[in-house]
Amino acid sequence: MRELGVQTLLDLLGIFVFALSGALAAVRQRLDVVGMVVLAEITALGGGIVRDLVIGAVPPAAFTSLGYVLTPLAATVLVFHWHPQVARLMPAVMFFDAAGLGLFCATGTTKALEHGLSPLHAVLLGVITAIGGGVLRDMLSGQIPSVLYDRQLYALPALVGAAAVAAGWAADLHGSAVTAAAAALAFALRALAMRYGWRTPRPRGVTDRP
Amino acid sequence: MRELGVQTLLDLLGIFVFALSGALAAVRQRLDVVGMVVLAEITALGGGIVRDLVIGAVPPAAFTSLGYVLTPLAATVLVFHWHPQVARLMPAVMFFDAAGLGLFCATGTTKALEHGLSPLHAVLLGVITAIGGGVLRDMLSGQIPSVLYDRQLYALPALVGAAAVAAGWAADLHGSAVTAAAAALAFALRALAMRYGWRTPRPRGVTDRP
Amino acid sequence: MRELGVQTLLDLLGIFVFALSGALAAVRQRLDVVGMVVLAEITALGGGIVRDLVIGAVPPAAFTSLGYVLTPLAATVLVFHWHPQVARLMPAVMFFDAAGLGLFCATGTTKALEHGLSPLHAVLLGVITAIGGGVLRDMLSGQIPSVLYDRQLYALPALVGAAAVAAGWAADLHGSAVTAAAAALAFALRALAMRYGWRTPRPRGVTDRP
């Protein structure tokens, strides 16, 4: 019971932070309140919805949980009224975003394994769970998804966290302790990458986008 | 039987009008005939397909009904040959588009409730049914979806119509009379918003997109 | 057994070539290695994933086959290290892309028919299988999907191949010989269209996109 409570609380925290980034993107793109709500919901829930459609867990969790739908609305209200202040807190938001990334890749991989996917495919779905919402946010904002070009270590920490869950599963280690450890690993890697400015490689001869 | 006939006729009318807007968008973007067909089909059927995937009603209605697929083709033929005339009729098209919006939000919410979703989630899916096709149309045309920024009351009337269906359902009122009343309510609100130029709010300090 | 082997080999070849086009698009858009992997996977597997979600074949084939996921990675490695050489081979790539198009429209239609869809809807899904991955590739690259405006015969050969499978099915002809013949027909039509520069029509008064 207590464990369920902690897991749910972490889930909602991840959703809240992802929703903040969606609502802030809407402000940057000068969208109206409809755009803010849509981007907040999609950023927070989009990755999980895609995962659930793929594994056949319908309706997706986002369409059975009240908290999942209402939390992005709370983030939207906050950004609507205090977006300059929230934008100034971006370093803190990025910190929590890293936490959401870690959490989502670990829980996404676990859910895919529980639905019988192979470790490789579960890792793939874990990464999709973690980065899918941000990709949809950028597509709806008329941008190329930043994760595809900005050379930050963002998908890679998610991949490492997802692989840790799958490796644990293969060694018959599962349960929330493993999920938590993998989430922490992905979070730490992402935080270090931000701290030290680690970059992903690009093919030879390719320069920055203008 | 007669009721089924009226419902189907209204459905096809909504699909036809949404398809017109898709085919006209293709002309504005200077697409070829393939682009016209794809945008007509997606605009008309996209919202319902997403709804059906989410509630697990597969194959989606669009992939089991001949009329749903052929009606957008008829709209494409019309726009292909007479797009200047159709574009001149835009005020009338917008009027029928409002009817399609009302109809789709009401029938989408009803279908979601029938599949066991909670009232809140059914409302969400009703709105997705109504605006999803237009969002996909704009994304495929390389545009930010207009519903996210243009400050027209478009998603809000859909939300009100969907909420009316859900409120009726909670009060044990359902059937096609309730659906029709909710559709009419959304339609009326949308028509009034167009007539009087009502606008959605934007966060403080945000100005028009260039 | 032997037949299965040939079919699988052809599938993987189609996936490989589509993945090449995705990875090359990523290089043109100056994406990083994450963008290359994502575009390679989506271009190769996106159409089939959409088809499988629509017919309810979950998890989609891409999430149950190792080869389907690993083949685009191989294409990414190739393009990462030798993209100037691969780009110079574009005529050959386009030739194999036509083969992939033929194969995907035929197998997609067959799978949809086997899942009980009507011939019309199976044809629709066959075309989606063939062109869906490229559409998603272009959307993720911030481009209007080229199949919607570039007036090449690309969707049409897929439509013809899909219709040939459906016509065979209606005449009680199925099996891999029919699928292969339909794939060859679509391939030949696409190759002729490239050779002779055949163009799709556009509505009156519409000129080239800038």
UniProtKB/TrEMBL annotation, chains A, B, C:
InterPro entries: Gly_transporter (IPR005115)
Record-annotated membrane-spanning stretches: 6-26, 33-50, 62-82, 89-109, 121-140, 152-171, 177-194
Keyword set includes Ligase: no
A Pfam family of this chain: Gly_transporter
Membrane topology: Multi-pass membrane protein
UniProt superkingdom: Bacteria
Name listed for the protein in its UniProt record: Trimeric intracellular cation channel family protein
Organism: Actinomadura parmotrematis
